[in-house]
Specification:
Layout (H helix, E strand, L loop, with lengths): L1 E2 L4 H6 L11 E8 L5 E7 L3 E5 L2 E7 L3 H9 L1 E8 L2 E11 L10 E14 L10 E2 L5 H16 L1
Antiparallel strand pairs: 1-8, 2-3, 2-6, 2-9, 4-5, 5-8, 6-7, 7-8
């Protein structure tokens, strides 16, 4: 199935709210290096927020290979599992200005959704995506809440 924007279920999932219930979920962010090699990074629910059905924002640690790749190419793909659907979200990205008052400085990106491909098989159900267990739930939750607020600015 093909989509050009987030549906209601995905808008809620990427809303930046109820992070405690989403603390074990992660996605992959795919970029390409200057040597044309694929580069994968993990992104948590506390690092992405939907601004509209056709626009996401991402917060990445400064100076990472992923952030440098996005600055150079202006492109990325977000790979996620939600509601028994495997999502391939093609993004056009641009760096947002740095926030002087950020508690946890991050590179913030405005991402226009160019295309969403949804993989579902009639003979099988996707039961989970990438999940993890936080080592410091309180610390991560505080950073995520701050990152989501910064992304909304």
């Amino acid at each position: 199935m093909e989509m050009d924007q987030l549906d209601a279920a995905l808008l809620e999932w990427f809303s930046g709210s109820n992070l405690e219930s989403k603390q074990h979920e992660a996605m992959q962010l795919l970029t390409v290096t200057d040597g044309q090699w694929p580069h994968l990074a993990m992104v948590s629910m506390g690092e992405v927020v939907a601004m509209s059905p056709s626009r996401l924002r991402l917060a990445l640690w400064q100076g990472t290979q992923t952030s440098m790749n996005m600055m150079e190419t202006g492109k990325a793909a977000l790979i996620a599992v939600h509601g028994q659907r495997l999502l391939h979200v093609r993004l056009e990205v641009r760096l947002l200005p740095e926030l002087a008052d950020a508690v946890h400085p991050r590179d913030r990106y405005e991402c226009n959704i160019l295309h969403i491909r949804v993989d579902q098989a009639p003979y099988a159900e996707i039961t989970s995506g990438i999940t993890f267990q936080l080592k410091d739930t309180n610390g991560a939750s505080a950073r995520w809440a701050a990152a989501i607020e910064d992304l909304k600015k």
